[in-house]
Amino acid sequence: MSRIGVFVCHCGENISRTVDVEQVAKAAGEIPGVAYSCDYKYMCSDPGQTLLKKAVAEHKLDGVLVAACSPRMHEKTFRKAAESAGLNPYLCEMANIREHCSWVHEDREMATEKATGIVKLMVERVRKGKSLAPITVPVTKRALVIGGGIAGIQAALDIADAGHRVVLVERDPSIGGHMAQLSETFPTLDCSQCIMTPKMVDVANHPNITLYTYAEIEKVDGYIGNFQVTVKHKARSVDESKCTGCGVCMTKCPKKKIPNEFDQGHGMRPAIYVPFPQAVPNTPVIDRENCTMFQSGKCGVCAKVCGPGAVDYEQTDSFTVEDVGAIVVATGFKLYTIDRKPEDSPIQGYGEFGYGTIPDVIDGMTFERLASASGPTGGKILRPSDGKEPKQVVFIQCVGSRAREKGISYCSKVCCMYTAKHTMLYHHKVHDGQAYVFFMDARTPGKGYDEFWRRAVEEEEAVYIRGMVSRMYQKGDKIVVMGSDIQVGVQVEIEADLVVLATAVQAQDGADLLAQKLGISYDKYNFYSEAHAKLKPVECATAGIYLAGACQGPKDIPDTVSQASAAAAKVMTLFAKDQLERDPVVAKVNEKYCVGCFACKKVCAYGAIEEKEIRDRQGNLVKKVAYVNPGVCGGCGTCQATCPSKSIELDGYTDEQIMAMIEAL
Amino acid sequence: MQIITEQNLRNLIDLLVKEAKLVVGPKLSGSVVLYEPLTAGTELTLDALPRRSSKELFFPVCEDILSYKREGGAMKVTDVDRSKFPETVLFGAPPCDAGSPSILDAVMSWDYKDEFYLERRKKSTIVGIACTKGDDACFCRAVGLAPDTENGSDLFLTPLKDGSYACNAVTEKGQALVAAHKNLFAEGAGAEPVPFVDQAVQKLDLVKIKKWLEEHFEDPLWERIADICVGCGACAFICPACHCFDINDEGSTDDGVRRKHWDACGFAKFTNHASGHNPRDVQNKRYRNRIMHKFKYYDDKFGKTLCTGCGRCIRACPVGIDIAEILETINGKAE
Amino acid sequence: MHDFEPKIVAFVCTWCTYAGADLAGTSRMQYPPNVRVLKFPCTGRIDPVFILRAFQKGADGVLVSGCHPGDCHYMAGNFHARRRFAAFRALLDFIGVDLNRLQFSWVSAAEGGKWVEVVTDLTERVRTMGPMPEFKELEHEELWSTFAEATAGKSTGLNITGDRSQVLNTPELKEAYDSIS
Amino acid sequence: MCESKNIYLPNLATIETIVDETPDVRTLRLVFQDEAVRENFNFRAGQFAEYSSFGFGESTFCIASAPTRKGYIECCFRSVGRVTESLRRLEVGDTVGVRGPYGNSFPIEEFYGKSLVFIAGGIALPPLRTVIWNCLDLRDKFKDITIVYGARSEADLVYKHELKEWQERGDVRLVKCVDPGGAGPDFDGKVGFVPTVLEEAAPSAENTIALVCGPPIMIKFTLPVLERLGFSDDNIYTTLENRMKCGVGKCGRCNVGNVYVCKDGPVFTAREVKAMSQEF
Amino acid sequence: MNAKANKNQLTSIEPAYYEAVTEAIRKEAVKILKEDTVVGVVGYLPGRRKGTATPALVTSVEEAEKLVFSPACVNNLSVYLTKAKKGVLKQGKVGIVAKGCDMRALAGLMTESQLQREDLFIIGVVCPGVYGFGVERTGTLTEANIARKCRECIVHMPEGADVAAGTHAELADLTPEEAEEMARIEAMPQAERWAFWKEHFSRCIRCMACRQVCPFCYCEQCLCDKNRPQAVESSPRPAGNMAWHLVRAMHLAGRCGGCAECERVCPMDIPLNLLNRRMAKELKELYDYEAGLAPVEKGPLNQYKEDDDQSFIK
Are residues D95 and D114 in the same domain? Predict the structure, then answer.
């Protein structure tokens, strides 16, 4: 038989005005299992808490119920008091007789009856409650950052600067990401590479950062504080430890006419290459698909010219397993490719814009490369088809974005600003040129953004036409752009030399596959889902995994960098302690009765449930059962409601407690 | 010979109901015939063997054996008032049902007396009826009973071809019943009795079978049966002789009832000890126990076979385990 | 005071509806005191068995309430609950439980007013429906063979329904019958 | 026995003291609430009872205290199941139900003038402890008394205080042991399994009765040892623990063949056990 | 198209059909036993009584030659494969004779990680139907003696078996009795529905035959055997019986493949399959899900869509 103490609070007059607290205390005293009950003016006050502590000692109480305000208000207070009196804090509960009773009812008799009822119910909860010990999880103070764009770089540097080791994994041969491709950035028009490349070098030189480029995530095991991540190092065909980065191989490579991805295919590179001159690391890779040696077995020039003998045609993909405590996902975005076939995707293409068929219809990133001093045209705006300087350029915004009927309903957030920037860059470079912009809205919230946009319109002479383009076709060396100006209500037809489409920002290819490996959730556009839209914008629902940058949704650079630093801060918070302590309200499996149907695993939103093998002494597999990783479990209890045999149970909300409460109704 | 017409038999039920007796007999309940309280003679249904045996008259599916309640600090336990058990008359039990109490009396009173059973038994009168139905699952003859076995009945009715019944008051209780309702019975020669149905299973040598069982505690037969037995309790629950039960508390720790209810030796956890030790841990041991209990142990202990050959378990077994066939097999094997 | 005060049980999630009910309190809104709130971490934790059990143990109405879709603190608990309860409702309906006694709602932490509305509606609706007899009666129902005081016509609530005029067709019988009645 | 008695009705008893023998084995000392029952409750060593925790049901254990000590009974159990776990949650002053005593007992009178060897393993000491104290209370009626008791580990030894008492008594030989790996640094007993330790201790079979109680596996290996030591099957007694519900020979659970352990047992000689069907 | 034409003509399935299926099963069973593909075959043997058959696990060629298939082969043999019941799988790969409805259970068990396809050799039976209960068992299957569940069978052809025994044969123009009965109950006033089920459930004696034959009741500890906390009273009283059947129906929702074994074996004739069909109907309507047509990743109650119906939620 339990010895529970019930403490009924007057809350000044807040409760006692409508509830006969003495009566409630008296009735509580008669409930089986209650050894002591009393009422007091302010239970949460110091004397109130002292009263509770004294009663626990004097009456040898093994559970405490405070009938007062909402547990959301003072549960922590009283649990702490109970703990200091030597009780397990989870054996202290609150009966809410203020918000749920005295404040919402006027009839004293009925309110008293209800308060008594609530107390009765909650006494059962305490009676069937169990002591719970806080769960501690050891933390490996080493972080993994996936993605070497600005987000990943920022996060990695922040974490590394805080003194923790970081593994940075980049899929491409070099870090830098999209930001390295940009010419200048809004709203300040500073040179992107000038601010980006020093950070890339910092990464390469940081003693706490291990950089893996040309590598991908193969597999993720473990949980917060204790992930084991298998990294696949794609065969580079160049031994990084030997390569000095002299670049002779690249200059000698006989195959030089391969479209360069970094320049959106508008520049050329050899088969052994670094994506761009400032690449970090400055170690080339061999593009095996385009390498004569790999395709026909005859060549081997690069190996011959390589002084240190770094070229290795035999190299194969290799794997390492990295133990990390936290993961920052910063995989970035890609631009919407217009010619996507409807059968591939629910997102329909924009065939009417002629992208891919009309050579001088390009996307925004290509324009960035054209405008970039390091780009294929050396910073001159020359159109792809004939290398002429375009005199009339049409920019079209919201290509892909905000077009629900075509499959993407969101705003890509950065296009308004970068298009404005493009018009400016164009104006700066082609003084006699004219930029037109078709737009739906100009969305320019952000520090200095609207001013920047206005500058484009008012000072840099870009003509903004509110409306959409309906049709476009090649006419001679011109592109006829037909659209409507809905503000004026007229049809517009422009003969353009170049058309730049501000295509939508989309999740990276394979974002869904990576999410599945990581066990994080993603939305229908494959952007990763944050744990809470407002209060946990950086965290994933899966503990220990954080989001940075455009992988979570379209973002500009400052937002991306902020989020990256925020993610880094979250990682540092996690790393601040050797052990991770968490609320012990987690599910546990009764392995004796679990039959391994894994319905629990199927409904677990946290990926906290794993399959565990039970073996006999001889090592034969007896059965597979569910195992809840307490470090990962969120404590919702959906698994328990799903389990047919109730072989999984949520501590703190056990069936026994709930049934007893129902019994006491 | 005493003769009662069918009409008067139904009238007798009406009278007994009126006398505030609990009158139980085969009655259509939903789509099945069960032994249930009759509220009128017209409800008596004699053309099908009830799905459950009449044992529940004495050994209910579930009954309270005590109640407990915490009053103030003290626990109070209250006994069941068995004196309130009603006077009962059972109608229409064929020999395979009417015969079961006389088998169960032994275990219910061999040392400790189960007063729940015995009180109900004391207050009941069994009006048995010779069985003229039967199907290929029946095997009462095989276990030493017959469609006209009177033993177990207080009053025994034999259906006659003209629709009336020849009555034989087997016991004092039976005589008393007749005496109290004399005007419903008539003296006479009676018509010819309705013939009995042939049974597929012939008389078995129960002594021989018992001997075989004694010598074949381990036998591939048990495993063969266990291969298909799914471990439900259908056979035991509808059996007139099975009497295993469980005791459980229902309610809270402060207020509740302790109940005794049917259990079955085929259930996997029937003999599971809290320590995890389970002497009958696999189905073949459990099924073996069922056969052994019926045809050996009970006989060893109480000198009776724990089976009346009603065939219910054969009809009900989900997987077609046929106890008559098993007995025939053993009978054939035994020397 | 009314003649019949229904017993209403509310199973609510702690993050949205419980907080919403708190808000109703801090806003000093008024609603009928019949409801007893059982707090769960999430509607995903609420087993249909609890609803069944609540009816068995005397509830006249049951409310299940949690976060609006998409607002679940645990991401998807309420989505799972939604399917589970859709199925359970169908089952209860099929066996003959009046679904007017079972209410599901989404009440967010900001919807103190909605909480009051939902609770008041359910309470008043159940009040007009009267006590829920089905499960409660079942609790006390025994099989005929169990009942210690069983006598014919009383044990199972059966009434003597046989047509006596047809049975008692002879004067002697009538006499015999009358003599004992 | 009174004719109209409800054989399933327990007597109420109050928990007087609680002793934790091991982390999961607990002894409850129970005092009957009804004075008449308290005075008249008699039992013999080896008998068992049905203990109920209201709301949870009944569980069967032997009466672990000695019949020579009146006024209370003791039971000792490991919390493994639902009922035992609920019994464990009870505290001093709480009420439990007790039905019994049931079953047969050790024929102690027949042991007069003989030497006794008690062999027990783990949680199976309580059924012998009642006999041990019974015999120690009548010490002069017996010759040598040897107790061989072992458990998995030192922590699993029950009645530690009494073991000490027996050890210190001059008139009892206590051989205490734990399984290999189960001994702490200060353990003063032997290390080894009970059958092995018994063989080493080699008590004389001359005019001696052996009483064995332990898990089935221990009994299986102990009987051959006793045979080697010269004990006849008639001079070896054991007590069986099968799952029981009614305790009074009705419910059909505890039977081993045609033997109802609850009625015909729980005490059997080795000869009887061997004669029982292979089921044991 | 041929099958369709066939279907319209058949008013009875003659013993010859079953004999042909029997032959095919025997041939296959013998073959896989001989080739050591399997350690045993779960099939049917004839029963002692006329028109009965019993399940059997055969391990030798001689026994395999005695296997039969007839309208009396009512059992869903997949129950023998789940470990809590029999665990014949422990010994190695096993052959199993499976009708279309049994295949649905097999698919469900694979969905729930209880079976691996590679552990099974499935001898599918193209099944025109089996006997109902309490009917004339003559060897010929007609509208008069076909089981209720078979009247609405959509899985005459066993999809996904290793081999199939038999050719398409179905009885024509069967009235969907189960659907009609369900509609009848649904049309009842609420109180009448309650009375209907209450009457049925009060007959329940908790013999657990329904649970023990159910391929999906493979829990090590059934909720109804768990009594602290007690969600379902273990005693066979009206209250606990109602709770038990509701809990069971809920647990089977989205899983039950409709073999109707629970209903067939109920010694008290409780129409249990109606509950399961009702749940299946609901889940089909709401989530377009039918259990057991193929192994899937998640059942309907283990997944959700953000836009699931919530018209019942305020």
Answer: no
Pairing of strands B22-29, B32-37: antiparallel
> pLDDT for B135-189, tens place per residue?
889 999 999 899 999 999 999 999 999 999 999 999 999 999 999 898 899 988 8
Question: Which of E165, E198, E227 is the last residue before a domain boundary?
Answer: E165
Assess B268–A contact: CB distance below 8 Å, yes or no: no
Host domain of residue D164? 108-239
Residue where the block lists tokens 């069982």: B213
Q: Is residue D136 part of a domain?
A: yes
Tens digits of residue pLDDT in B218-227: 899 998 888 8
Distances (CA, A) of D178 to A327, A474, D78, D194: 49, 95, 18, 8
List the structure tokens of B248.
């459980």
Higher pLDDT: B251 or A496? It is A496
Boundaries of domain holding E102: 2-165
CA atoms within 13 A on the CB side of A338: 20
Q: Tell me the pLDDT of chain E averaged across its residues.
A: 90
Lowest mean pLDDT among A58-67, A518-527, B205-214, E46-55: A518-527
What single-letter amino acid sits at B61? V
Per-residue pLDDT of chain C (181 residues; tens, 9 = 90+): 568 999 999 999 998 999 999 999 999 999 999 999 999 999 999 999 999 999 999 999 999 999 998 788 888 899 999 999 999 999 999 999 999 999 999 999 889 999 999 999 999 999 999 999 888 888 888 888 776 454 333 333 333 333 333 444 455 555 555 544 4
B62 contacts E49? CB cut-off 8 A:
no
- E15 lies in some domain: yes
C141 at B interface, C-beta within 8 A: no
- Can you read off the two tokens belonging to residue B63? 């009954």
| The last residue of a domain, from among E165, E185, E220 | E165
Yes or no, beta carbons of C180 and B18 under 8 Å apart: yes
Alpha carbon of E205: minimum distance to chain D alpha carbons (Å): 17
Residues composing chain D: 280
Angle between helices E272-287 and E177-187 (to 10 degrees): 80
pLDDT at residue A342 in the model? 52
Residue D267 forms part of a structural domain: no
Kindly give the parts of chain A with pLDDT less than 50: none
**Domains with residue ranges and CATH for chain A:** 4-128 (3.40.50), 137-232+322-332+508-578 (3.50.50.60), 235-316 (3.30.70), 337-505 (3.50.50.60), 587-664 (3.30.70.3270)
Assess if residue D256 is contained within a domain. no
Q: Are residues E189 and E156 in the same domain?
A: no
Number of domains observed in the structure of chain E: 2
Q: How far is E76 from chain B (nearest CA, A)?
A: 10
Question: Which residues, other chains included, contact C121 with Cβ-Cβ below 8 Å and sequence gap of 6+?
Answer: C103
pLDDT at position E1 is 38
Res A343: pLDDT: 61
Q: pTM for this one?
A: 0.82
pLDDT greater than 90 at residue E228: no
Chain A residues within 8 A of D94 when measuring between CB atoms: 1
| Region C8-138: CATH code | 3.40.50
Chains that touch A (3 or more CB pairs under 8 A): B, C, D, E
E273 lies in the same domain as E221: yes
Nearest CA in chain B to C177: B15
Size (chain A), residues: 665
Question: Cα distance from A663 to chain B (closest Cα, Å)?
Answer: 8
Residues 207 through 266 of chain E touching chain B, CB cutoff 8 Å: 207-209, 211-213, 225, 227, 230, 233-237, 261, 264-265
D93 falls within a domain: yes
Instruction: Let me know whether D207 and D112 are in one domain.
Output: yes
User: How high is the ipTM of this complex?
Assistant: 0.88
Of D76, D102, D128, the one marking the end of a domain is D102
Does the beta-carbon distance from B70 to A663 stay under 8 Å? no
**How far, in Å, CA of A637 to CA of A648, rounded?**
9
A660–E83 C-beta distance less than 8 A: no
Q: Strands of C102-106's sheet, edge to edge? A: C35-40, C8-13, C61-66, C102-106
Same domain, D203 and D116: yes
* Distance in angstroms (rounded) separating the CA atoms of residues B93 and B274: 40
Of C143, C144, C180, the CB nearest to B19: C180
